[in-house]
Design brief:
This protein is mainly alpha-helical. The protein has two domains: 135 residues, no CATH class; 80 residues, no CATH class. Helices cover 62% and strands 3% of the residues. The chain is built from twelve helices and two strands. Strands 1-2 form a two-stranded parallel sheet. Helix 3 packs across helix 4 and helix 7 crosses helix 10.
């Protein structure tokens, strides 16, 4: 047990090394966010500008949580708060180094907290397109869509428009049309629902997957849908 704990601790220490890159794979609740916070602070303490260090998250919730933890660490370092555990001790230590760099480089992080680049993937993409409008080929800045149902329906309609252009495509969904009793609106509705849950099926479809297995799963999906009607 002790050797496993030592190995885990060594891995956590390695992940903070600023001159190396790492992929961290660990279960939920194992402290990945806390580790990322410490690495971010460590890198920030060595940067010339705070904008050089970018943390990218999937969700706004994760971005907000990480930003709050970093600002809390900086405030704890400023007030010289006594750490309650080893994690907090490391975090305050790195935050203290950041404050030294902040003073040296005149970042004024407490007055300009937005200089901390902690963003979602969408946020980073928007940031890049704003600064490279010609390369991005955007006439106007795109907005992040909160409700994508309209786009899913539009994609479904575009898919069905392929019927008139690609007879082979029409042949490939012949069994689906039969299973749905030639009810095109129901088929469109099912495809729209599938797009909303594409994270559940996109990977096996986009990788090596036997055609027989795909047909079997598709038939099962349709049968389940019919049973619910």
């Amino acid at each position: 047990m002790k050797s496993k704990m030592d190995e885990d601790q060594r891995a956590r220490l390695r992940a903070i090394e600023p001159d190396k890159s790492f992929i961290v794979k660990a279960p939920a609740g194992s402290g990945k966010t806390g580790l990322l916070v410490k690495r971010y602070l460590r890198l920030l303490s060595l940067a010339e500008l705070p904008e050089e260090i970018v943390a990218i998250t999937f969700t706004r919730k994760a971005s907000t949580e990480m930003r709050n933890q970093i600002q809390d660490a900086l405030e704890s370092a400023l007030t010289k708060k006594k750490p309650e555990n080893e994690y907090e001790e490391d975090r305050i230590k790195f935050a203290t180094d950041v404050l030294k760099q902040d003073k040296k480089k005149k970042w004024h992080l407490f007055d300009s907290p937005d200089r901390l680049r902690i963003q979602t993937i969408d946020g980073v993409s928007t940031f890049l397109t704003q600064r490279m409008p010609i390369l991005a080929k955007f006439g106007a800045q795109p907005d992040v869509t909160e409700d994508a149902k309209y786009l899913y329906k539009l994609a479904t309609t575009d898919t069905f428009n392929l019927f008139n252009e690609d007879k082979e495509f029409l042949h490939s969904i012949h069994e689906i049309i039969l299973h749905f009793g030639n009810n095109i609106p129901r088929i469109k509705n099912s495809i729209t629902k599938m797009l909303q849950t594409r994270d559940l099926w996109l990977r096996p479809v986009s990788t090596k997957y036997s055609q027989d297995k795909m047909k079997q799963d598709l038939v099962q999906l349709i049968e389940n849908d019919l049973e619910m009607v």
